[in-house]
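Here is a typical protein record:
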Amino acid sequence: MARSAISVACSVKALIPDTKSSDVVKTLVNNTLKAQGYRTIEKTTTVLPLPAVYDPALVNCDSDLVLLAQGIVKASSARLCLYGPPGTGKTAYAHWLAKQLDLPLIVKKSSDLLGMFVGQTEKNIAEAFEQAREEPGVLLIDEVDGLLQDRRSLRAGWEVTMVNELLTQMESFDGIFIASTNLANNLDQAALRRFDLKLRLDYLAPEQAVQLTRRCLESLDLPTPDNSWDYEIRMLTNLTPGDFATATRRHKFSPIGSAQEFVAVLQAECAAKEEMRRPIGFVH
């Protein structure tokens, strides 16, 4: 299969000089593997460009994230559990940390590692850690609660085996491993003890929200003639860095014309979260 793929890649390269042979080979091999029911060759997720306004000091964490990064750079080893509400900057910090370490970030979601057949999930977990060793890179497992459920509540044997495999891999891994979750209460207690640090990332503090608003307005070239919006921002108690990222993306296709309009977008994002938290019931 590999020889045929290389032959085709050479032919394509001759016809289209700008084509990367490695991309052609990978596409052909992946298509063949997929057709035969095997897993495709996974692409390493590298460090994505962070927003120009990103600053770990503007992440509401119970630890100093900058000092933590400096310590990890020296130690070259750490097991971190980042938990907290959605949008609070867990994944962004993993990207930023990988950049400080000058390493690629290998991102795996629980759904990527869960397999359909007995033993497949354990194999996928082992391969993820092996990939992080070989590259080497920072390994991030997002939504880790799907893999590290409390074993006291598990009924199926394969579920317990899955948790045990992840714990075994964590203990033998001497690189940088980060797990993130919105549901820390669901994690296995023994698993939590194996993390060097458990960091809660929370909604922005009022002053952080104001500073981040100012930086975003400057990056979008929006005038800030006064601080009339300051009080309104401070009143948003469930504001996250993710809300600012959403507003900035929206500006690309639906331009925001003023600071007040930008604040209104943030208010709408916060209101939507409150609406989703309300219980849905029947009207009697």
The CA atoms of residues 65 and 261 lie 31 Å apart. Strands lie at 60-61, 78-83, 105-109, 138-142, 176-181, 197-202. The radius of gyration is 22 Å.
